[in-house]
Amino acid sequence: MDILVVGGGVIGLSIALELLLAGHNVKVIVRDEKEGASWVAGGMLAPFSEGLKGDFLRFSVDSLKLWSEYLDILKDISKRNVFFSQGILRIALSEEEEKKLKEDVREYTQTYCQNVVSYEGSELLKEFPYITEDVRYGVIYGDEGNVDTEELMEALYRAVENLGGEIVREDVLRILREGDRVEKVYTFFDEFTADHYVFATGSWLKEHFGFPVYPVKGQILRVNAPIKDYVIYSSKAYIIPREKDLLIGATTEDAGFDHRKTLGGLSKLSGGAIEVIPSLSDAELLEVRVGFRPGTPDEMPVFYFGENFSVYGGHYRNGILLAPATAKVALRLIDNNEVSEFFKIFSPYRFKEEA
Ligand SMILES: Cc1cc2nc3c(=O)[nH]c(=O)nc-3n(C[C@H](O)[C@H](O)[C@H](O)COP(=O)(O)OP(=O)(O)OC[C@H]3O[C@@H](n4cnc5c(N)ncnc54)[C@H](O)[C@@H]3O)c2cc1C
Question: Most buried of 17, 209, 226, 276 (most Cβ within 10 A)?
Fold first, then answer.
C-alpha cells in the first residue's frame, strides 16, 4: 500500500518504520524536522515513576515491553548508536510523597513490575551518597529506562530513509475530506494522494482535526556534570545522566507556543536539581531547551480512524515511551483492518461525553 504519514516526530516516524518493515511504500511529510517535542524530551520510559494508572498504565507497560526489540531493530537498520540506560530511581522527599510512593510500589509489584529494589532513607544514602539528606525513601524500577532522544530521532530518520521511505519537508496546509475519507493532502507547492493517510502532528493536531490537543510548554536544561548513574525522578526535578551530558527537567507551563527560555524556568529547574543533588550547583549550564508536549484534558492520547486514514496524538508526557505500542496499533489497523481496543479507550469522543 502507499501510505502518507504527516508528522515527523517520534510517533509519525515510528509508525513509518513499522509500515516500511511490513513492506509498504511510505512517504513522510514534515514541516520542520526539529520543531517536534521528540527532540527535546527527557527520554524516560517511566510508566511507574510517572504513577500511571488503569488502561493507560496497561498500554504504557505494553509499550515498555516492546522497547528493547524496537531499539535493536532501529540501531540495526539505521547503523547508528542510540544511548540507553536501564532503571530509574524514584525518590520521596516528604512524608506525604513517601506514603504515596510506597502505595504505588505495592500496586505495581502486584501487577506489572517485579524488578524493584527499594531503600529506606539511610540505606539509600549509603548507596547514593550524593543525594540530599532529606531523602526519605527510594525505589529503583529496574524495567524502566532512558533513551537519548536526539540520537533516537537521528536514528529514526536514517532508518526510514534506509528502508526506502521518502521524507518530504513541507507544511501540510489543507486536508480534503469527503465523508469518512481523506481524498487529498495539500502543501503550498504540491498535492498528495495515498491508499492510507496517517496523521501524527503532535501539538499541532488541532489545526486539522479540531481534537482537543494543545501545547504544554516544557523547558529542560542540558548541563555538564560528572554524575553517571541512574536517572533520578523526584517532585523537584528529574535528573538524567547521559553519555555526553546531563539533563534537568522539566517545567510544565500553560503558555501556548511560547518559545522563550525564561529566568523563571531556569531558576525552578536549577533550584530543584540542586535540592536533590547539592553538588550540581557546580554543574556547567550548556543549554536551555523548549518543547511542546501534546496535552489533552485527561492527559491520555487521542486515537481515531476513518475509512482510509488514522490519527495518533496527544501523547503528552509519555510519547517517547508510547511510540512502539502506538506504531503496532497503526500497523494492525492498516495491515489487517484490526481495530485495537485503544481506539475506543483513547477516542476523542470521550471528551464529548464529559462535556
Ligand atoms: C521538556 C519535555 C520533556 C519530555 N520528557 C519525556 C520523557 O521523558 N519521556 C516521554 O516518553 N516523553 C517525554 N516528553 C513527551 C514527548 O516528547 C512527546 O509526547 C512526543 O515527543 C510527541 O511526539 P509526536 O510525534 O506526537 O509530536 P512531535 O515530536 O511534536 O512531532 C510533531 C511533528 O509534526 C510536524 N507537523 C506539525 N504540523 C505539521 C503540518 N501541518 N505539516 C507537516 N508537519 C507538521 C512537526 O513538524 C513535527 O515534526 C517530553 C516532552 C517535553 C517537551
Answer: 17
